[in-house]
Design a protein that fits this description.
DNA polymerase, domain 1; binds S-adenosylmethionine; Rossmann fold; alpha/beta; single chain
Length: 329
């Protein structure tokens, strides 16, 4: 697996070199109330739009509408006669999308997990869509909103829920899972070689007091990992990524969503999936291959497409992106 940071395209982006004796360089302990929202650059935008073969009047499902970066271009292509169903499990980001995309008659923004995209379409009375996009992971807006607790760059309560109505937060996992469960999460979702050391340190710390903040978690991880093990990424990067994926059950949602969404694709309709983690990409690859073998899907991209060096230079967060495209038979 590639080295991936806490947030999908955002993975690996916190890549400053770290010096052993500069704790302060590791955690820029900004106040949790401080909110700094960076613009979210849509990844592989032109490629996605071309692969979706958008035409005026089409019905398109954007299962991860986020701030509406891809959606804006999709709306432009499908025109006033088209319909765009933009789903996101984060109601806060849907408000940003609403502002960014403006009032458009064919636009439906829905707060829902994309694993229930079929239900959303049914409720809207939409029997089938011409194209679908899933752009996985977290948005820059979420990462840069300190109080959401996604980033070790800000000191904030340990939350990491994309959907604030969900019941389980990072606090719950970090403080209540068994040592073995934590090791398993860190190894599987973070590919963390020091999983056992980190889990052991977490257990010792939480015996004294609950681990409540991102900064506490980052400091514990930092102390647990030997210096020679540090790479160019922050030592807590993998731990944060692993807990975020576990809190939001990201792989499970993807596995459930793909077959449901494909059922709603019209013959000839295309699905584009942008992933930023090798386990996500693997889920997509295996699903597409299985349906291709059953002649339900045709693989449009035999190998996943990656951003160009120019795009990576302009938007470093795109660097772990992989785009896979398939067409309904
Ligand atoms: C990378 S951002 C999408 C960015 C968007 N394409 C743009 O250009 O602005 C991913 C978004 O997907 C949402 N998301 C992640 N998993 C989800 C799920 N299972 N169901 C619904 N939304 C999800 C996140 O809340 C986030 O807003």
């Amino acid at each position: 697996m590639r080295e991936e940071a806490q947030g999908t395209r955002d993975e690996g982006r916190e890549t400053r070199d770290h010096k052993r004796d500069t704790k302060s360089s590791i955690i820029l302990a900004k106040r949790s109330s401080f909110v700094h929202r960076k613009i979210h650059e849509p990844v592989l935008l032109q490629e996605v739009v071309e692969f979706l073969q958008l035409r005026p009047g089409m019905r398109v499902l954007d299962g991860t509408v986020g701030a509406g970066g891809h959606a804006k271009e999709i709306l432009h292509k499908i025109g006033p006669g088209g319909v765009l169903i933009g789903v996101d499990q984060d109601p806060n980001i849907l408000e940003i999308a609403r502002t960014h995309l403006g009032e458009t008659s064919g636009l439906h923004l829905v707060h829902e997990n994309f694993r229930h995209a079929d239900r959303v379409l049914q409720q809207l009375g939409i029997g089938a869509v011409d194209a679908c996009l899933l752009d996985l992971g977290v948005s820059s807006y979420q990462l840069e909103t300190a109080e959401r607790g996604f980033s070790f760059q800000y000191d904030a309560p340990l939350d990491m829920r994309m959907d604030p109505t969900a019941t389980v937060s990072a606090f719950d996992l970090v403080n209540h899972l068994s040592e073995w469960e934590i090791v398993s999460i860190l190894q599987r979702l973070g590919q963390e070689r020091y999983a056992k050391r980190i889990a052991d340190s977490l257990m010792q710390s939480r015996q004294k007091e609950p681990i409540r903040t991102t900064q506490q978690l980052a400091s514990i991880v930092e102390r647990a990992i030997p210096y020679h093990g540090w790479s160019r990424i922050h030592p807590a990067t993998r731990t944060f990524q692993a807990f975020r994926m576990a809190v939001n059950r990201e792989l499970e949602s993807l596995e459930e969503a793909l077959p449901r969404i494909v059922k709603f694709l019209k013959p000839g309709g295309r699905i584009c999936v942008l992933s930023f983690h090798s386990l996500e990409d693997r889920v997509v690859k295996l699903f597409f291959r299985r349906l291709a073998a059953e002649q339900q899907l045709r693989l449009v991209t035999k190998k996943p497409l990656a951003p160009s060096p120019v795009e990576i230079h302009q938007n470093p967060r795109s660097r772990s992106a992989k785009l896979r495209v398939a067409e309904k038979c």
